[in-house]
Design a protein that fits this description.
The protein is an alpha+beta fold. It has 2 domains: about 35 residues; about 110 residues, Cupredoxins -  blue copper proteins (Immunoglobulin-like), CATH 2.60.40. Helices cover about 20% and strands about 30% of the residues. It is elongated, with a radius of gyration of 22 Å.
């Protein structure tokens, strides 16, 4: 039986191990940017609930340079959802409003899911209860083209 050279005996397993490590790293990176580069912002403040979709959720959205820093939010259907808008733009007005879709013609919860327009730097909190699971649209009504995002309700 011929002797297997060291470069083959050690190189092939090392190459396979490297491939696996880099594949896992690429997968992890893809998971981080899966939501269009958005930062997930769903901190559950009370894990209780009635066994449904989960308990209340409280999030903070930062408005800076006429953009939302967080563009992807998660809430639970039938549970309180508290959204604090942290407007860091001095003397610039912002708000956050949640709609059924991108047309922004129907509020997700009429009379409740549209926050007050206010100038920064300041913060305001909007609280409402998403009625059903689904994917919904949110935006700043003052800057509807540059400040948008997606609310996922489970």
């Amino acid at each position: 039986m011929p002797k297997v050279p060291n470069n083959v005996r050690f190189g092939v397993p090392l190459m396979l191990a490297s491939f696996i490590v880099f594949a896992i790293a690429l997968w992890g990176g893809a998971e981080l940017i899966k939501s269009d580069g958005a930062v997930a912002a769903d901190e559950v403040v009370d894990g209780g609930g009635d066994g449904g979709g989960g308990g209340p959720v409280s999030v903070t959205i930062v408005a800076q340079n006429t953009q939302f820093v967080q563009r992807s939010l998660t809430a639970n259907a039938g549970a309180t959802f508290a959204v604090t808008l942290d407007n860091k733009d001095a003397a610039i007005q912002h708000n956050v409003a949640f709609y059924t879709n991108r047309s922004a013609s129907t509020l997700l919860v009429p009379g409740q899911s549209q926050g007050e327009i206010f100038a920064g730097p300041a913060t305001k909190t909007l609280t409402f209860t998403p009625p059903r699971a689904g994917s919904f649209f949110f935006r700043c009504d003052v800057h509807p083209d540059t400040m948008t995002g997606t609310l996922t309700v489970r």
